[in-house]
């Protein structure tokens, strides 16, 4: 009989964030599919009570918690110790977690401590004939594999936005506290976070639309002039009006590293594709992007895709976008912004 | 740091990203069609790790960089022809599979054993560095497990910057959600650093560095230990290329106004 553990790190207010609720949906699907399976929830954070109450409606057999000031920080030493203690207390055979930066940092190491194995970036789970199968990508989203594992414990770390978040009733509920030994002095201290130097908040993982800017924005236009100064307000204006997230092609962000005239707010953090992120958004609008596979993998997980490009045969859009508008992106985006402003 | 750092970079090879990749069935599990024929490059994020490691070593007198790499010996040799001219390092080579379908825990075990066997490596000065994910398996697991095997519990992933503070502590910037960096300070080595992009461009070839490296690269390749890594407890039910082809509606003759209207309606829908 499988013992499923949903392992989650709580937000600063003690609640479970959207990625955690998404993985709870996956855990419930597995519990339903595997006869006799049991679900335990394990929570780690400065405080975990609110999260325990939030998910009690999914009827877990136990809710385990590690809380305290030491666990407010996203730090390998304390996070790994807490996760290990919860996994052992739950006697879990299948451990599910959301692939946040915090969980991704520690859970493969925790799997090793448990003498188990980890699979990360899982984007699908399925149970057929009493066996659990997971789906993940290889070679930077270029081929998809369905996997099973014969050994336990099996740590499964799911990419955010791969499942619909669980919704259910909540009420105040208690949890079983799990003791975790913490050394008197930790060598690592988390001192805070910082936004990109550009100051513009352009990466919004939970937003509806991804706007992809390609290197074409920085190239000579029809009149022979480079118009980066015009491109910047157009793109930032669109991001501001729609609250879209900004992605950049590799050539675009590489230009920044090479000291060429580029969009001032574009950094490597915005890069999507082979050596960048592959974000998940319901809609994506690509502008001035060029290139065949593998460059186009950056929008592999965008459901509805549209592109603006002057080349009707461009491999970025042909066969990969639902709609390709063959037109000047400067002109189109200027009018799009005007229409968006008018409709506000 | 007094005496400098002992920096071990773990970095493997991957097929050139511009190549067409197709899955095939190999003798021990999934593989890439014509895998041995595909040109190989240094894994991109491991490349950033190597360049950042060399830069750090240069700024900290007494530091030394070892590059631990596992792959088919012939491909490693091919890679060294280009990468050997970029930055100074001592190669520790393992002759084994570079496939993304192998079990990361098995790869980590082989790498940890190789690192433990490096003569005169001082763990109290150790910075264990690599890419935060590979462009093959893309799991972000291997380096963590190597760190665990070496008993290192100060680990950082998705790092874009490491700086040495006046008091000798290390300040690290790690990528977190929302395009932000988490700032951490670690008092001293040993640490594990999984690099993201960092800030340095690829260094130009320097023949003098190439000649210096080749004194140790060729002997390292000759004595590269053969390592068997497989798929462990993994059972691949299927491996396939995604269905990529969409029926693209090409809008050629519409006005800017019509296109803008359509886009706005679509966004608001």
In a few lines, what is going on in this structure?
The complex is a heterodimer of chains A (344) and B (269). Chain A is an alpha/beta fold.
Search tags:
heterodimer; A: 344 residues; alpha/beta; Rossmann fold; 2 domains; nine-stranded mixed sheet; five-stranded parallel sheet; 7 helices; 15 strands; elongated; B: 269 residues; two-stranded antiparallel sheet; 30% strand; globular
Please provide a written account of the structure.
- The complex is a heterodimer of chains A (344) and B (269).
- Chain A has 344 residues and is α/β, with parallel strands linked by helices.
- Chain A has 2 domains: 175 residues, HUPs (Rossmann fold, 3-Layer(aba) Sandwich), CATH 3.40.50; 134 residues, TPP-binding domain (Rossmann fold).
- Chain A contains 7 helices and 15 strands.
- In chain A, strand 11, helix 5 and strand 12 form a beta-alpha-beta unit.
- In chain A, helix 5 packs parallel to helix 7.
- Chain A starts with a strand and ends with a helix.
- The mean pLDDT of chain A is 91.
- In chain B, a hairpin with a 3-residue loop joins strand 10 and strand 11.
- Chain B has 6 helices and 15 strands.
- In chain B, the strands form 3 sheets. A 9-stranded mixed beta sheet of chain B has the order 11-10-9-12-8-1-6-7-13, with helices on both faces. In chain B, strands 2-5 form a two-stranded antiparallel ribbon. Chain B has a two-stranded antiparallel ribbon with strand order 3-4.
- Strand 10 of chain A pairs antiparallel with strand 11 of chain B.
């Amino acid at each position: 009989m499988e013992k499923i553990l949903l392992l989650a790190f709580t937000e600063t207010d003690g609640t479970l964030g959207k990625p955690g609720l998404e993985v709870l949906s996956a855990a419930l699907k597995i519990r339903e599919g595997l006869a006799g399976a049991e679900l335990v929830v394990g929570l780690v954070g400065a405080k975990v009570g609110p999260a325990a109450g939030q998910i009690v409606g999914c009827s877990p057999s136990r809710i385990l918690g590690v809380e305290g000031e030491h666990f407010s920080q996203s730090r390998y030493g304390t996070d790994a110790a807490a996760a290990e203690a919860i996994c052992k207390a739950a006697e879990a055979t299948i451990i599910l977690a959301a692939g946040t930066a915090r969980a991704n940092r520690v859970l493969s190491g925790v799997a090793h401590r448990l003498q188990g194995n980890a699979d990360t970036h899982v984007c699908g789970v399925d149970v057929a004939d009493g066996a659990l199968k997971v789906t993940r990508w290889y070679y930077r989203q270029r081929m998809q594999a369905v996997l099973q594992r014969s050994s336990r414990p099996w740590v499964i770390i799911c990419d955010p936005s791969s499942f619909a978040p669980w919704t259910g009733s909540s009420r105040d509920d208690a949890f079983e506290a799990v003791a975790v030994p913490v050394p008197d002095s930790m060598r690592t201290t988390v001192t805070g976070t910082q936004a990109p130097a550009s100051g513009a908040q352009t990466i919004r993982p939970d937003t509806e639309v991804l706007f992809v800017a390609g290197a074409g924005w920085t190239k000579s236009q029809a009149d022979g002039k480079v118009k980066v100064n015009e491109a910047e307000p157009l793109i930032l204006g669109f991001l501001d009006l729609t609250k879209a997230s900004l992605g950049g092609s590799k050539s675009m962000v590489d230009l920044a590293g090479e000291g060429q005239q580029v969009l001032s707010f574009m950094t490597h953090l915005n890069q999507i594709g082979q050596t960048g992120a592959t974000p998940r958004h319901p809609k994506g609008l690509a502008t001035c992007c060029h290139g065949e596979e593998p460059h186009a993998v950056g929008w592999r997980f965008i459901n509805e895709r549209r592109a603006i490009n002057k080349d009707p045969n461009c491999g970025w859009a042909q066969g990969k976008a639902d709609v390709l508008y063959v037109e000047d992106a400067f002109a189109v985006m200027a009018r799009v912004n005007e229409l968006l402003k008018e409709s506000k | 740091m007094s005496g400098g750092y002992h920096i071990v970079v773990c970095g493997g090879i991957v097929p050139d990203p511009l190549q067409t990749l197709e899955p095939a069935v190999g003798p021990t599990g999934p593989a890439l069609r014509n895998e041995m024929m595909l040109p190989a490059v240094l894994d991109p994020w491991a490349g950033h790790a190597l360049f950042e490691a060399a830069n750090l070593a240069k700024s900290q007198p007494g530091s030394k960089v070892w590059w631990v790499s596992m792959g088919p010996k012939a491909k490693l040799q091919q890679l060294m022809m280009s990468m050997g001219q970029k930055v100074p390092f001592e190669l520790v080579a393992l002759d084994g599979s570079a496939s993304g379908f192998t079990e990361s825990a098995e790869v980590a075990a082989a790498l940890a054993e190789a690192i433990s066997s490096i003569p005169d490596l001082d763990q109290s000065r150790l910075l264990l560095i690599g890419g935060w994910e590979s462009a093959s398996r893309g799991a972000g697991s291997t380096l963590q497990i190597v760190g665990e095997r070496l008993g290192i519990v100060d680990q950082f992933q998705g790092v874009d910057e490491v700086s040495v503070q006046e008091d000798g502590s290390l300040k690290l910037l790690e990528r977190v959600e929302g395009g932000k960096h988490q700032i951490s300070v670690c008092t001293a080595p040993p640490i594990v650093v999984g690099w993201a992009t960092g800030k340095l461009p690829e260094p130009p070839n320097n023949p003098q560095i190439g000649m210096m490296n080749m004194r140790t690269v060729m002997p390292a390749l000759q004595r590269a230990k053969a390592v068997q890594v497989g798929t462990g407890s993994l059972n691949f039910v299927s491996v396939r290329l995604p269905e990529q082809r969409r029926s693209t509606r090409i809008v050629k003759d519409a006005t800017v106004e019509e296109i803008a209207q359509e886009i706005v309606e679509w966004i608001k829908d």
